[in-house]
Amino acid sequence: MRTALDDILTSHRTGKSVVMGILNVTPDSFSDGGDFLDPADARRHAERMAADGADVIDVGAESTRPGSDRVDAAGQIARLRDVLPAVVACGVPVSIDTTRSEVAAFALDAGAQLINDVSAGRDDPELLALAAERQAGLVLMHMLARPKDMQADPRYDDVVGEVRAFLAERIEAAAAAGVDRGALIVDPGIGFGKRLEHNLALLASVGALASLGRPVLIGPSRKRFLGELTGRAEPRQRVVGTVAACLSARWRGATIFRVHDVSAVREALTVAEGIDASAEKKTPMID
Ligand code: HH2
Fold first, then answer.
1. Among 149, 268, 285, 286, which residue's CB has the most CB atoms within a 10 Å radius?
2. pLDDT tens for residues 213-242?
């Protein structure tokens, strides 16, 4: 059965695991830069991810990898123009990964239903109002500093407490701009201004973020912290690490998984869900 936006926004209550497939229409993304710049390649990849079990496809036209340069709204729209209609035609909900309201409006007009803003509404003051007006879903992500310099020297006294407080404040900012709280998703921003120990602490404390009352999205896919743990230097070789991070975060309350390797993550989640469903049915042996 196809997932609708409502199923994604209520996943924290139903326990449904949502796989968000990544489509980067960029020349410089850290693991797949240049692979899907051609609209025909982008369309094929979106179709593949939908067939592999993606519940939503997140399309981005600006890399946010550490050290990346900005792409203005016109540049993002030029990359998206031929791609978005083809992705929407795949039949799964589409999310737009942008911090710019002009790009988000373009994507919503083309049929996207969710805005994934890695700046949580801080980059472009118009974005929250747009999400409210268009009744779009909205991902609020934590990031320390900006992609250009976020990995320079990230420091926290209490990373989990600080990220949670930031997300709570951004929920209030979005609500004040008129966004329905029920449209919001929160994300600790794995790799965005975080060292290995910060990423691990956040993944271990998903429950503290889930207590904000909104679905928790995590995006560990192929990221550097996995290579730091496993020695896998090549991002494409970090699929097993990605699966492990997703399963661990699911166990702690995350329900939305933003990943490149849809087939592997969907398969792992299906097995985990099967085991959990069996455990729920079983009569306890000891009272
Ligand atoms: N990570 C990336 C981009 N967008 N959005 C959310 N909500 N959460 C994330 O963790 C997240 C995100 C970075 O990954 P990727 O898109 O693969 O790379 P790049 O930014 O180089 O395009």
1. 268
2. 999 999 999 999 999 999 999 999 999 999
Catalytic residue at 65?
no
Q: Which is the closest atom of ligand 1 to the Cα of 29?
A: 21
CA within 13 Å, CB half, 219:
25
Please answer whether residues 24 and 80 qualify as being in contact, where contact means their C-beta atoms are separated by less than 8 angstroms. no
Q: What is the pLDDT of residue 116?
A: 98
Q: What is the CA radius of gyration of the chain?
A: 18
Q: Is residue 130 part of a domain?
A: yes
Q: Which of 79, 223, 238, 266 is catalytic?
A: 223
Alpha carbon of 114 to ligand 1 centroid (Å): 15
**What's the pLDDT score for residue 55?**
97
| Residue 14 within any structural domain of the chain | yes
The upper half-sphere exposure of residue 141, i.e. CA atoms within 13 Å in the direction of its Cβ, equals 26
> Phi and psi dihedrals of 197, rounded to 5?
-65, -30
Domain count, the chain: 1
260 falls within a domain: yes
Indicate the pLDDT class of residue 283, thresholds 50, 70 and 90.
low
Is 258 considered catalytic here?
A: yes
C-alpha to C-alpha distance for 274 and 286, rounded to whole angstroms: 22
CATH number of the CATH domain containing 254: 3.20.20.20
pLDDT in tens, 38-51: 889 999 999 999 99
Domain limits at 67?
Answer: 5-270
Band of the pLDDT at 103, cuts 50, 70, 90?
A: very high
Q: What is the whole-number distance in angstroms between the Cα of residue 64 and the centre of ligand 1?
A: 6
The SS3 of residue 227 is: helix
Cβ of 139 closer than 6 Å to ligand 1, yes or no, is yes
Q: Answer whether residue 275 is part of any domain.
A: no
